[in-house]
Amino acid sequence: MSRSPMIVRTVPALRRALDGLRARKATIALVPTMGALHDGHVSLVRLAKRRAKKVIVSIFVNPTQFAPTEDFGSYPRTWKADVARLAAEEVDLIWNPDVKVMYPEGFATRIVPEGPAIAGLEDRFRPHFFGGVATVVGKLFTQVRPDFAIFGEKDFQQLRVVARMAGDLDLGVKVIGSRTVRERDGLAMSSRNVYLTPEERQVAPALYRAMKESARRLRAGDDVEAAMAGGAELIVKAGFVLDYYEARHAETLAPVASVKDGPLRILVAAKLGKTRLIDNIGV
Hints:
Rossmann fold, Pantoate--beta-alanine Ligase, Chain: A,domain 2, 3-stranded antiparallel β-sheet, alpha/beta
């Protein structure tokens, strides 16, 4: 039977638990999540276990990264199932603060990232988002002080923003990206997939198919503009409303004119019905 992880909800309790782990010279990996855990999150936990002796998973639905029009109130919350999943993976500790712990009365400090945070991708449609992410992740890093932090590559711009922030602020944590976990038909696993109707769920893998087709054309030497236009057409024909579909430099997220401009990443965000999906692949 899996042992239950320690669950802590206050900063003093977290510090006491961490002091105990560090007294034994244990390396620590942090997996930040907003709960509603799926197999993609489990893959992050398993990578964390390969990198460190002790694994901490944070579960905190962060209000500052949601705009008033977004789904903070309805974001899926599956606490009992999440704890059971993490117990099965033998996670050592769950850090589960509430909003008043993370943002106490009078809280007045924000991290405002630039660089990859203003690349004209997610930030163009959700200008509030990366400030909220950077602030909460900065807090998590200073609270837990992990040796490693594991983030999924599905949120690729977020991964680049967090890695840049950790380096720029000398936070002493190595940020590691973990490959996107997909359903059998190619749809990237996401907590928001539960919003898709059965009919939309059948259509959703078109995002992945379009990216693969554009990547194939780019590798074959096709023009960037033409390859991306072809993929965008496939996505729109499938029934999506496209926010962006772009090839960018895989490290800086800068726009590229040709495959010679460096390692490329195709990134997409599109709405299917009421659900907004994001995804990306390397070229």
